[in-house]
């Protein structure tokens, strides 16, 4: 509870005494590259396989001749776009981005780099953390869109290449009764997850005390707490918005 | 001149500083000395405002820092340069970018002007041809020099150094000490150096404050430190064999 209060106070200090605007522009670009572009590879791998596995497992479970095969495409689409692409991607990103943020900030804290900023009269929390949160909010939706697309493509590859389903049926399936709101929902989820992961990891890293061992601990804690937060938020959003 | 009055600080019921008073003279290297863990770094952090003292006041040339509003605080901070115990260079930035950083953040100078100023400072601390290297690629002594260059780049009126020669060999230590002393005289800064190296104490200690278990128990200069009657200070000084021998010879 005390740490939750401290977390809120940290978030509010991000906006008071900010530095000049163009300082942030450069920082946001740098962070976007670090958080976004550098995560593309892992997102591509994870989402393609998620789609492929979903397709194969759905096909395996569909033994009734009464159900048309194109349903495989529909199920892959609904499972991945709504849940697997945003949530699994963000859980993976919580591991990659979260540990990176917490480790980076923790190291800066224990090597007195944060103090060095403060002595210069710079709002270190705002200078270091705000660009990370903004960069995550900008890049996570893009990553989730890539993930949604690739998981459907992964399902296509797995389904069509193994000959379980024809190309035509699969394409018909993913178009069948398509609801645009699902995409909106996935993007809303990615925005919320981006904020949670970047801010929780920043909090963990920023208040690291001690030495190298504690930096490792804050990274671990950042990943654990971000994952828990992502899954809780996932449930809440589903309750509220679906 | 920096004046501190009745500074006390405790962390979780553990008294680290108790009623410390003193002055740091302009244009001189002022030393804070004492054994490990006596609160030297905490005192320095109180003075620069990184740690809020429980009690007491700090004033920079008559401007009260503890009571100051955020605007005055900000303007005093811009006159402070600090070299940290571990240099605290930004490891994602090159040497040149590190030195330019305060200018980037706090001034509206053009890029060429900033580069010129950064190079001037790097030259002043005796570091050329290292501009494009990263902190992890240079030695500890060079890192200290970069730290000093970054501390003076804003033409600081106040220079703070926390153990500028920890982890350096004696020869490099002396060079860094003398650099700090020269810069102090050249720019007429009020310099405060925390150290427990007797070599620097004797070399550059124009005004020395001895901290023992969070209290200031002696004040003086390197000329009279060897003749002190304070037993805690004697223990501190004469832990060094060379100084012990030197003192014995002098007494004879
Ligand atoms: N943020 C803090 N929280 C709790 N205790 C602290 C904090 N900072 C310092 N201390 C305690 O204050 C005491 C003095 O620490 P300080 O770093 O000032 O020592 P020092 O004189 O600089 O020693 P050294 O020469 O080893 O650097 C130590 O016992 C330390 O545990
Ligand atoms: Mg110290």
Please describe the topology of this protein.
The complex is a heterodimer of chains A (242) and B (252).
Chain A: H1 2-13, H2 21-35, H3 40-61, H4 71-110, H5 113-119, H6 124-161, H7 167-175, H8 180-206, H9 212-241
Chain B: E1 2-11, E2 14-24, E3 29-33, H1 40-48, E4 55-60, E5 63-64, H2 70-77, E6 80-83, H3 95-106, H4 111-124, H5 140-152, E7 158-162, H6 170-187, E8 190-195, H7 198-204, E9 207-212, E10 215-220, H8 231-237, H9 241-251
Parallel strand pairs in B: 3-8, 3-9, 6-7, 7-8
Antiparallel strand pairs in B: 1-2, 1-4, 4-5, 9-10
Helix pairs in contact in B: 3-4, 3-5, 4-5, 5-6, 6-7
Provide a compact summary of the structure.
The complex is a heterodimer of chains A (242) and B (252). Chain A is mostly helical. In chain A, 83% of the residues lie in helices and 0% in strands.
Radius of gyration of chain B: 19 Å
Q: What's the arrangement of strands in the largest beta sheet of chain B? A: 6-7-8-3-9-10
Task: Please state the oligomeric state of the protein chains shown.
Answer: heterodimer
User: Whole-number radius of gyration of chain A?
Assistant: 21 Å
Choose one word for the global shape of chain B.
globular
Class from helix and strand fractions of chain B? alpha/beta
Would you tell me the structural class of the helices and strands of chain A? mainly alpha
Global morphology of chain A: elongated
Number of helices of chain A: 9
Q: H/E series of chain B, N to C?
A: EEEHEEHEHHHEHEHEEHH
The count of β-strands of chain B is: 10
Strand fraction of chain B equals 15-25%
Portion of residues within helices of chain A: over 70%
**What sequence of helices (H) and strands (E) makes up the elements of chain A?**
HHHHHHHHH
Mean pLDDT over all positions of chain A: 92
Helix content of chain B: 25-40%
Tally the beta strands of chain A. Answer: 0
